[in-house]
Amino acid sequence: MKSKQALRIILVFSIAGLLFSGYLSYMELWGGGCKNAIVQCGSNFSLFNLPACVYGFFMYLTIFIIASLGLCDKK
User: Of 36-40, 52-56, 67-71, which range is least confident?
Assistant: First the structure.
């Protein structure tokens, strides 16, 4: 597998993770909670008064940015 192909696959998974964790983060922070949702963020754990899905969103965002920069490299 070539590095550009691996970066494309990582980019697709990071987009999926961004959408999923973004939805959960929105529902937990502004949507009134995930009480009726199929998947819940898990309100039992919080760090600095933020649910865990918010940190997942920023981790996926970091992976997305790094993969995008790797694909935009001219070399």
Answer: 36-40
**What does the CA dihedral 21, 5, 1, 20 come to, rounded to 10 degrees?**
10
- Number of H helices and number of E strands within the chain? 2, 2
Element (H, E) at 46: strand 46-47
β-strand partners of 51: 46
Alpha-carbon torsion, ordered 19, 68, 61, 15, to 10 deg: 10
Burial zone of 14 (CB within 10 Å; 0-12 exposed, 13-18 middle, 19+ buried): buried
